Structures are given as C-alpha cells and as structure tokens.
Task: inverse folding
DNA sequence: CTTCAAATAAACAGAC
DNA sequence: GGTCTGTTTATTTGAA
C-alpha cells in the first residue's frame, strides 16, 4: 500500500525533489494493483504540476514505511511457509490475531506487490501485520535476553535461598551484583528497543501496541492500568530491586506477573517465543490483581468449580494442586497464553469502557433530572470546547478532536508522529478490499466517519490510500465543517490534512475531486459572497447508495421513522440493545466526544456516529439550532434545485413539518444510509 | 458477458 | 498568459 503510493510519488514527484525515490520498490509499484492508477492515460506524469513534493518529514516517514512494509512482506512469507509446513504443530498460529486470510497467506507473499498487499490487507490489517513483525523481532530479542535473565534469575534464586539462612548483610553484595547485572541487561534491552523504535519498527508506546484497543478511548480505561500493564516493557529506569522483588526477571510485565503466580513453572518456562498475535511485543500483562489472589491457599482466581477458568479452557482439575500443575503446563508463558491474556484484556477494557459510558450516561440523566450526582463525572474529559468543526481548522491539536466530534484519548497525547494504529479487529478492517480498489466506504459496512475516526492517525501519517471514494471523502470533508460548506480549496486542504496519501499526486486527485464535485449530483455548488462553496445534498448522496441494511429491523424502522430526538434515542436504544454498544450520540446526552469515542471494536457503524453528528451533533454551536440543516437552504441562493426536487418524494421518512426537515433529513439519510451497509 | 460505479486522464471554458 | 475552478467526455478497472 504504502509502496504503491511510493511508486506514484516517484512517478509524480518533481524529479529532483525526491531523494528518497530511489529506495522504494518501484518495480513493484509498476504492477499497480493500484490498478486504477494506471488508468487511462497511464504513462503520463500526472503530477507535472504538482510542486508539493515536500521532502523531509513526509519522505522520511515514507521511507520508514517502506522498510516496515518490506519487513511485513518477509513476514508474510514466513507465515505462508509456516502454514504450509506440516510440522506447524502447536497453536502459535491459531492465536494469531493478524487476520490475514489464509488464502492470502498461502500465496507466496514474496510475489505480492505492495499494491497487492495493500489490496489484500486493509490498513488496519497491514498495520497489525507490521506490528506483528515488529513483535517478532522483539520476541527474538527478548528471547535472547530472557534466556540470559533466566540464568541470572536462577542464580539469584539460589542466592536468595542461601541468603535466607544468612544474615541479610551477607546476602547483600552478591545479590547486588546480580541486580546490577539485571539492570544492565535491562538497559541493554532498552537500547535495543530504542534502536528499533528509532527505526520505526517498534513502538514502545503502550497504546500503540495494544492492537485494536487503540481505537478505544484509553481514557475511559482505568488510566492507572496502562502504565502498570506496560511497565515491564517500557520501564528503563525500573529499579532492579523491583524486578527482583517480583521475582520476575523477564522483560515483560507478563513474565513478572505470570511468574509470580506460577512460580513453579518459572523454572522451566517454555521459551517458545513466537510472534504475538497482534504483533504486539510480549507485553501481555495479566491483571496485577490476579497475582495477588493467587497466594490465597485453596483458591485461585482462575480456578473454580473444579475447573480451570482460563478462557476457553475449562479443564477439570480435582484440586488446586492439580490445577496449578495444569496451569503451569497448559497456560505457561507462551504466545498462546499471552494472546489469550490479551484478549481478556480487551474484554476487560471493553467492559470498562462500557461502564464508563453507562455511568456517564447516568450522570447525564441524573443531571437532567436535577439529581445531583454525588461526585463529578468520573470521565469528564476535557470536554473539548472545540466542536467537531475544529477539525477542519488547521489546528488538529492536542485535543485531537475528530471529525465526528470524537475526542480521542489523551493517552495518545504521546501521539507520536506515526501512531499507526492497527485497528485490526475493528470492523473497519474487515471490509476494505483494498484501498486502490473499490473504495469501500460507500457501499460497504463501514461508514467513513467512523473508520476515519478510528484510523484517523493512521491515514494522516501513513502514506496509504484511504479506502474511500472521492465522493465520500468530499462529503465527509464538507460535513465536518460547521456550516457544511467548503470551497474547493478548502476541500483540497482537508484532503491533504487528513491523508498523507493526498499530500502527493496532487494533480491527480485534485482533478478527481473536481470531477467528482461536478459529476455527482449530491454535491451542490452554491454561490457565496466570497465565491462558490460546495455543499452536500444528503438525499442525493444517499440515493446513489443501494440500501443494504443488515441491522435489526427494529433499528431500521426506528431510524427510518425517526423524526425527533426521541425517536433517535429509540433507535439508539434499539441499537444499544442489540450491540451492547452505544452507537449514536444522542444529542440530549453529554457530548459527542464522550459518546462516540466509544466506537471501539467494530460496532462503530450503526448510525455512524460521526456522520449524523455534524448535523445534529451537539458539538458545533453554530449549526446546532434546530433549523441547522436549513443552512443548506440558506446557503443556496440557487433556485433550490436540489432541494425542491427531492423534497416532495421522500421515499423514506414521512415529511414531517413539525419536526422540521433538519432532523428528518439527518435521520433518514444518515442513519439508514450509513449503516445500511 | 454485461452492467455499473469509480478512478483516472484530459480537453475545454470561464473567471480572476 | 497562467492559474484556478468547473464541466464534460473517454477510458480503464473491478465488482456485482
């Protein structure tokens, strides 16, 4: 994917500027799974006029991505060979969370062009892949370190044993020496990690490596968790005593906790380290509390009713002893366990988020009913005063307010240059058949806004072609603005701001944008004081999209008939009931940021939080007033062609004068449309 | 195989 | 005259 754009870049970038050009897999690029890119005129250099070949940061990033891609390809190769090899006995693969279709994995990846990869893998998948690869490297590193540490640990243990019988002082010196050794080891490892990180191959950021969780509002998760969870990995300065105390010599938190409650097994831990499912470095960390329980005689948090409560295990164990044994053999520290652990983490985080949401809702309800909540909102994030619109301003800034009004977790505060998140499991990843192909946004499941929200950083930084049609992108751009109108140039800017990909090949895509604006009836040009602006005629936009509702009939009904906020809430609830995730941002409720930041795994689409938001969203003061949507009418000085024609026959919702066309439109157009997929 | 939607390329015109 | 904007046509491609 990235390479595709690379090749394009090379093609299109004004010759001299692109020093990096030489390095990319240009040969691959020609294969142009990019398909369309070949397009009509093919050979011609489309970007002759494109002087935007900014060199430095973008290209550097690009370079890094190239490297990563390379690695990823190798990895694919490994995967494939692994699959084909009969000896692939254990469950390593099974746990793999990188959802590469088997068929894909089977084909020899080395033959895959980047474009093909891009097509095969959705951005999230690819991202996951990359991370997996990174994890692999980390694994190897860690394996090495771990072995050494094991030895040290053993020695240390014996020392301690011996030390117990001696005065503490005697123990001191030798132990200190070991600790220092340990410390050195850790530092060494840190250096390696840092190196990797510098190469862009490893991200030490907890919130980055956490796979799909990335998309979760980390803030909603117990903020204290993360540091804890990840401490093993990222704590260079962690005092040696600490690790000694915990008897966990491993690099990872996993090891620390795991060892603590499975001490016996510690002696011979299975060292079979392999890639971690989500490409995450072995930083899987069971909850700390689990370790605390475990000393309790006669009980174990993972043991109950005579069976192992390890997720998906249920092995019967007669007594605790047997269970412990089972635990140590079956659930030792290997990648399957860590994978499972991680899944559990996700489950927990989901629940936490859910809890956060619900309590937030409760707060709002209580507030509404004038029942003073006992305490201030637990999750009152910096309620971003900046409306979703701010997004369209140049300052996307810290608050990271999203198009949808999403306020993304401040955890991403660290938001490094390339928080290439791997939404991996998110629904977003499921649909995209390949960026260069049919842009999925329109017809397929993911509403652009939510996918965009989820992968915002990804697209912003990765030179990856977004899997959306131009039309949907344009629409998104327009809808994100407070008054829902943009000049052509502003649209351009939005593109470049939102997508690294569109910082290149400007001639090409700008032409396409203009073409789309003109071509699609859903884009209405309006003469403004300052010139012309473009608006979106939602009705037209939805028209072109074959309704395809997979959701519950009730939901559909609700949404279709939804004319007011009440109805909206109904649908909201229906959706909630169905998916157990809040889907829409009910306007009455708190704040877009809070609700929609929920978006987590895959349930992003119902109602496309982002899409309706701009319309009825509580985020943007200017357009909030009930007749908000009428701006379109206002704006239009043109003999409301689009407006008039379509008003009469609304196939969906009954024209309800009382409710005002605004919500009506919003509901029937946004909702069905977006989630109908 | 056909149809359709989308992407791409390109020609052209009008406004600035 | 050059650029930007906007319209239109043609071609290619992939998916249904």
Result:
């Amino acid at each position: 994917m990235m390479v595709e754009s690379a090749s394009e870049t090379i093609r299109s970038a004004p010759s001299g500027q692109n020093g990096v050009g030489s390095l990319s897999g240009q040969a691959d690029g020609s294969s142009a799974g990019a398909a369309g890119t070949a397009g009509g005129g093919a050979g011609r250099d489309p970007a002759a006029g494109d002087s935007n070949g900014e060199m430095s940061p973008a290209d550097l990033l690009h370079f890094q991505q190239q490297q990563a891609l390379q690695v990823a390809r190798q990895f694919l190769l490994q995967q494939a060979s692994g699959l084909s090899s009969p000896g692939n006995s254990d469950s390593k693969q099974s746990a793999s969370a990188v959802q590469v279709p088997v068929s894909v994995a089977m084909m020899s990846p080395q033959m895959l062009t980047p474009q093909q990869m891009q097509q095969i893998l959705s951005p999230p998948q690819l991202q996951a892949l990359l991370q997996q690869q990174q994890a692999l490297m980390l694994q190897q590193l860690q394996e090495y370190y771990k072995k050494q540490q094991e030895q040290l640990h053993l020695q240390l243990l014996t020392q301690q044993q011996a030390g117990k019988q001696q005065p503490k002082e005697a123990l001191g010196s030798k132990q200190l020496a070991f600790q220092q050794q340990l410390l050195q080891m850790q530092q060494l490892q840190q250096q390696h990690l840092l190196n990797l990180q510098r190469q862009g191959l490893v991200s030490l950021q907890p919130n980055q490596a956490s796979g799909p969780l990335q998309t979760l509002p980390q803030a909603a998760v117990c903020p204290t968790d993360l540091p804890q969870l990840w401490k093993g990995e990222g704590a260079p300065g962690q005092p040696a005593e600490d690790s000694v105390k915990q008897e966990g010599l491993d690099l990872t938190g996993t090891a620390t906790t795991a060892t603590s409650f499975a001490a016996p097994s510690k002696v011979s831990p299975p060292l079979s380290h392999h890639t971690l499912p989500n490409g995450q470095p072995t930083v899987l960390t069971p909850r700390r509390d689990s370790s605390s329980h475990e000393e309790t005689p006669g009980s174990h948090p993972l043991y109950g009713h005579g069976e192992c409560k390890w997720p998906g295990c249920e092995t019967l164990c007669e007594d605790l002893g047997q269970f412990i044994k089972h635990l140590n053999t079956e659930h030792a520290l290997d990648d399957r366990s860590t994978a499972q652990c991680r899944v559990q983490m996700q489950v927990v985080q989901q629940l936490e988020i859910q809890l956060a949401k619900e309590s937030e809702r409760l707060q709002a309800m209580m507030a509404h009913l004038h029942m003073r909540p006992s305490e201030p909102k637990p999750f009152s994030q910096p309620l971003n005063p900046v409306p979703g619109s701010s997004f369209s301003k140049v300052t996307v800034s810290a608050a990271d307010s999203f198009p949808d009004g999403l306020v993304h977790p401040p955890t991403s505060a660290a938001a490094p240059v390339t928080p290439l998140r791997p939404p991996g499991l998110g629904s977003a990843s499921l649909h995209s058949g390949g960026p260069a192909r049919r842009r999925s946004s329109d017809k397929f499941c993911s509403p652009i806004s939510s996918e965009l929200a989820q992968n915002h950083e990804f697209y912003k930084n990765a030179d990856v072609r977004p899997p959306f049609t131009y039309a949907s992108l344009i629409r998104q751009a327009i809808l994100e603005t407070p008054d829902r109108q943009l000049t052509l140039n502003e649209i351009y800017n939005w593109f470049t701001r939102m997508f690294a990909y569109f910082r290149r090949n400007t001639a090409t895509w700008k032409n396409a944008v203009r073409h789309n604006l003109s071509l699609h009836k859903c884009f209405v040009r309006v003469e403004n004081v300052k010139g012309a602006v473009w608006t979106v005629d939602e009705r037209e936009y939805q028209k072109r999209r074959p309704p395809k509702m997979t959701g519950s009939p009730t939901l559909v009904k609700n949404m279709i008939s939804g004319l007011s906020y009440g109805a909206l809430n109904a649908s909201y609830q229906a959706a909630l009931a169905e998916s157990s995730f809040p889907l829409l941002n009910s306007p009455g409720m708190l704040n877009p940021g809070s609700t929609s930041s929920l978006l987590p795994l895959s349930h992003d689409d119902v109602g496309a939080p982002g899409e309706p938001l701009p319309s009825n969203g509580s985020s943007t003061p200017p357009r909030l007033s009930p007749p908000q949507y009428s701006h379109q009418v206002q704006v239009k000085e043109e003999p409301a062609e689009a407006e008039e024609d379509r008003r009469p026959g609304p196939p969906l919702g009954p024209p309800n004068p009382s409710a005002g066309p605004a919500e009506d439109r919003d509901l029937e157009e946004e909702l069905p449309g977006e989630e109908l997929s």
